[in-house]
Design a protein that fits this description.
Layout (H helix, E strand, L loop, with lengths): L1 E7 L3 E8 L5 E9 L4 H12 L6 E6 L2 E3 L4 E4 L11 H9 L2 E6 H14 L6 E6 L3 E7 L2 E2 L29 H5 L1 H12 L6 H9 L3 H25 L3 E5 L6 H15 L9 E4 L6 H16 L1
The structure holds zinc ion.
Zinc ion (ZN) binds next to loops.
Length: about 300
Amino acid sequence: MKIVSIDIGGTNTKYGVFDFSDEMRILTSGYFKTPKKIEIMFDLLSQSLTGYNFSMVAVGVPGVYNKVLDKIVYAPNLHLLEHINIKQNFEDYFNCEVIIENDGNMATFGEYFFIEKEKIKNFVMITLGTGVGGGVIYNGDILGGNTTITELGHITINFNGRKCGCGKTGCFEAYCGMKGINETYMEVSGVTNSKVDEIFKRCQSKDSLAKISIELFSYHLASGLSSIANIFSPEKIKIGGGVSFYQNCFFKKTVKYFSKMIFPAFKNSVTLEISELKNNAGLYGGAAFCIKKLSNH
Ligand SMILES: [Zn+2]
């Protein structure tokens, strides 16, 4: 039995084919630049996925998905996906059952299901990429219902702060998404149009302006994470997404600020860690949602 998991991001779309027949394993995976039209996405998928017969498909989307209406009602980083019947489109194309989930929920469920399930019951994951996403596991299952239940990237960490892509002011994402990290570096150095990868590499080579920017990023990150910890009181919060590859630059600093910012009574009950599945957590999450669905059938 084969399923395909598709993770539509603001920049790239990833896919992974999983085989459940024996022990679950990934048969093939890849990515392409997220196109501007759904028809082009299907063209690109068919180039990569010919010859497979899928029993189920899981799709992670960067926005608020309403399961009753089958609509992404809000996608701050990818407006083109809004207001189309996405599940219907994918079901027509693949001719099988399709699960649509918010991408942050998908990554969270993947990391929980494959890495943490046997150890803990309450868990939060934050994904740092083009945007900031995440999800909450409460009592062993993903917190959610007919619509995306949390938008952790859009909690306010600075009410006098920057404008966010969502239209609000001072969101977590406006400081800890890739654009936000760039903006901090621009404020510190005056250099415009830097790439986040370059900023982290400069930080690794002890460039003082990059180091100040990443210190500020660690502070912003701890601020968002501590508020989330105060609300959900999870046993563990993991940091995933593309930015997590630069953990050597920011993780220790983030833990230091986090322990000062969190509600004192929770200080010793929450641990911070970097995601093990990193950028593939979403793909594994799609597989995990399929396993969950198939076991309920
Ligand atoms: Zn926002």
